[in-house]
Specification:
The protein contains 14 helices and five strands. By secondary structure, the chain is mainly alpha-helical. It has two domains: 11-138 and 270-295, Peroxidase, domain 1 (Orthogonal Bundle); 145-262 and 317-340, Peroxidase, domain 2, CATH 1.10.420.10. It has a three-stranded antiparallel beta sheet with strand order 3-4-5. A two-stranded antiparallel sheet has the order 1-2. 42% of the residues are buried. Residues 15-288 form the Plant heme peroxidase family profile domain. One of its GO terms (molecular function) is heme binding. Residues 303-315, 328-342 have a biased composition (Basic and acidic residues).
Length: 342
């Protein structure tokens, strides 16, 4: 007897979603003019909860919709990314949040000049928070190489993959009101490149203590020619970034990626694709056969309500309940519909 469970979307359906994501990337008043970097971070944090030993966590389920995961301090600021994607979810209500968050990141990487990341859909949305992983599985940027290995080995990555995934820091910036750190890693944080590795190696990074007590590393090019009234631009690196230089196994990969952009792009595409697949079990046809997917099929959660629906849903004031206030806030970032594309 054929299954009555909803099927995963077709390639044609997903192409429409990709087009919608491309259309929202240009956000002239948000950060450095693009929603792309924060969309990449959303997918990264959604998938990076995976634990290979217990086979829990990962991108399946879109657990960040619930306060149990969305309220993890490591996810601060990702409410903006989720809100940017709400119009896409409203236009295509059949797609799961779990698929949408991952697909949006893949599109963003490519549109910002990065590699093509192989991606498959089929993720379902959890109907409650009972399978949401515990907090504390995401990296702490204030730590060093031992911490990085503890976090990434738990997911099943090796040293080379750790360094390649760190290349996501070619994109975006840190915010004091989110991570506690402040600034951007590279000069052009909306263009995917290997500049992160080159700057790590060539600049003389100085330790700087922030007002909140955190320490980061900064570099200011004092010799660059500035226009009248301009201030020298400060770039920053996190303690975890600097550990890639001091660690004997990590550093050779930093050096290789700094010299060979094509190698970095190939390795990043492979490891980012692997990250987004963590926790998923597929059959020979590519269908996800995790228990929740087999039992419920392709379960797409409805667009987030502006009010809490159940005691387990996010309530007003909680970090995860972003749909109403952030949707209004982000509308101002969409003024120039015909502006330049990334």
């Amino acid at each position: 007897m054929p299954s009555s469970n909803p099927p995963a979307p077709s390639s044609a359906q997903l192409e429409e979603v990709k087009d919608a994501v491309r259309a929202l990337l240009h956000q002239p008043e948000y950060d450095d003019g693009s929603a792309g970097p924060v969309l990449v971070r959303l997918a990264w944090h959604s998938a990076g909860t995976y634990d290979a030993a217990s086979k829990t966590g990962g991108s399946n389920g879109a657990g960040m919709r619930y306060e149990k995961e969305g309220g993890d301090p490591a996810n601060a600021g990702l409410a903006h990314a989720r809100a940017f994607l709400e119009p896409v979810k409203e236009k295509f209500p059949w797609i799961t949040y779990a698929d949408l968050w991952c697909l949006a990141a893949v599109v963003a990487v490519k549109e910002m000049g990065g590699p093509e990341v192989q991606w498959q859909g089929g993720r379902t949305d959890f109907t409650d928070d009972s399978k949401v992983p515990p907090r504390g599985r995401l990296p702490d940027a204030a730590q060093g190489s031992d911490h990085l290995r503890h976090i990434f080995y738990r997911m099943g990555f090796n040293d080379q993959e750790i360094v390649a995934l760190s290349g996501a820091h070619n994109l975006g910036r840190c915010h004091g009101d989110r991570s506690g750190f402040e600034g951007k890693w590279v000069n052009q944080p909306t263009r995917f490149s290997n500049q992160y590795y080159r700057l790590l190696l060539q600049n003389d990074w100085k330790k700087k203590k922030l007002a909140n007590g955190l320490e980061q590393f900064v570099y200011v090019d004092e010799e660059i020619e500035l226009e009248e009234g301009e201030e020298p631009e400060e770039l920053m690196m996190l303690p975890t970034d600097m550990s890639l230089l001091s660690d004997a196994a990590f550093r050779p990969w930093v050096e290789r990626y700094a010299k060979d952009k094509d190698l970095f792009f190939a390795h990043f595409a492979a490891v980012f694709g692997k990250l987004l697949e963590l926790g998923l079990v597929r059959d020979a046809s590519g269908n996800i056969v995790n228990e929740e997917n087999v039992e419920g099929g392709y379960q797409s959660a409805p667009k987030k309500s502006d009010t809490a629906d159940t005691p387990r849903d996010q309530g007003k004031g909680q970090i995860g309940h972003e749909a109403a206030p952030l949707q209004k806030e982000n509308e101002k970032f969409q003024k120039r519909k015909d502006g330049a594309r990334l």
